[in-house]
Amino acid sequence: MPAKPRPRDVAAAKNYTDILFEVKDQVAWITINRPRALNAFREQTLDQMIDAVKSTREDPTIACAVFTGAGDKAFSAGGDFFAMKRLNFANGAMWNDRMQGLAMAIRGVPIPVIAMVNGWCMGGGHELALWCDLVIASENAVLGQTGAKVGACPTVGATQYLPRIIGERRAREMIFCARRFTAKEAAAIGLINKCVPQKDLLAETLKWCETIKGHSALTLRMTKKSFNFESDLLYASWQHGMELLAHVWGSDEAREGMNAFLAGRTPDFNRFRKRDQKALAEYLDGCERDLNAPPALRRKRR
């Protein structure tokens, strides 16, 4: 008689460098494993997270997935500036596609995805949490959008989801003013589901996973698809936002923001306003002097 097929261990053959991936007791654990960089992600990290999320489809016994960060200092500080400094308009779409690819993978799998947040959850790291279905955070967690401070814009989720989750006014405050929220504040305004003491974070997350394991997989699949229907219509907004972001990568302001952050200094964005003021003044003066006409057609100045 032919041997019975054995269940495939989807985690066994994975050889990741930037993340840890484990399937245990029907839960897929995806851990960003770059604690020295506050779990900031680079291209390889994004590729590996996408692969790990999609691989959960290969084992129907997996009931849910959990994203977290290694160590106790950060869930994720967002994109690694050493990677992002290399971006420009020519190659920026490759980074943006990876970001959207991870978001679509998380939204597309038929199981609930939980963000277990510990420490810093900033910028793109916060967008990662936004893509997840549920968010539980420890009391030491801080959530925020830092793009305005470093010359980037959070158009791969934050500008789409935040107004729906915390309201238009708070969303604009969070992005325009780079407003940060403690986990307690975040729970109070609905930005996350629950805030717990740091020592209880894992236990509480496991409790949520056990609850999900006891529920109908078919029902969870259908209700997740239904939940996502309206916000799936935001896909066009994501595409638009990523094109805008592609123009930001490699700009003078993006380089200034990232270099200042890495050097531990305050960025000087005002010099770009002054530069633009000078360029505008020259343009308006040219209009006044008829420089916007061919030389032969310019009026003679008295």
Uncertain segments: none
Question: What's the CATH class label of the largest domain?
Answer: Alpha Beta
The DSSP helix count reads: 13
Largest sheet: 6 strands, mixed
Notes on the protein architecture:
- Helix 1 links the parallel strand 2 and strand 3.
- Helix content is 48%, strand content 14%.
- The longest helix is centred in the C-terminal third of the chain and has 19 residues, at 270-288.
- The model has no long low-confidence stretch (mean pLDDT 91).
- Helix 3 (92-108) runs antiparallel to helix 11.
- It has 13 helices and ten strands.
- The protein has helices at 43-55, 81-84, 92-108, 124-131, 147-150, 158-166, 168-176, 183-189, 201-213, 217-232, 235-248, 252-263, 270-288, and strands at residues 19-24, 27-32, 64-69, 74-76, 113-117, 120-122, 134-138, 142-144, 180-182, 194-196.
- The strands form two sheets. It has a six-stranded mixed beta sheet with strand order 1-2-3-5-7-10, with helices on both faces. A four-stranded mixed beta sheet has the order 4-6-8-9.
- It has 302 residues and is α/β, with parallel strands linked by helices.
- The chain has two domains: 19-248, 2-enoyl-CoA Hydratase, Chain A, domain 1 (Alpha-Beta Complex); 269-302.
Question: Which characteristics define this entry?
Answer:
302 residues; alpha/beta; 2-enoyl-CoA Hydratase, Chain A, domain 1; six-stranded mixed sheet; 10 strands
Task: Please outline what is shown here.
With 302 residues, this protein is an alpha/beta fold. It has helices at 43-55, 81-84, 92-108, 124-131, 147-150, 158-166, 168-176, 183-189, 201-213, 217-232, 235-248, 252-263, 270-288; strands at 19-24, 27-32, 64-69, 74-76, 113-117, 120-122, 134-138, 142-144, 180-182, 194-196. It is built from 13 helices and 10 strands.
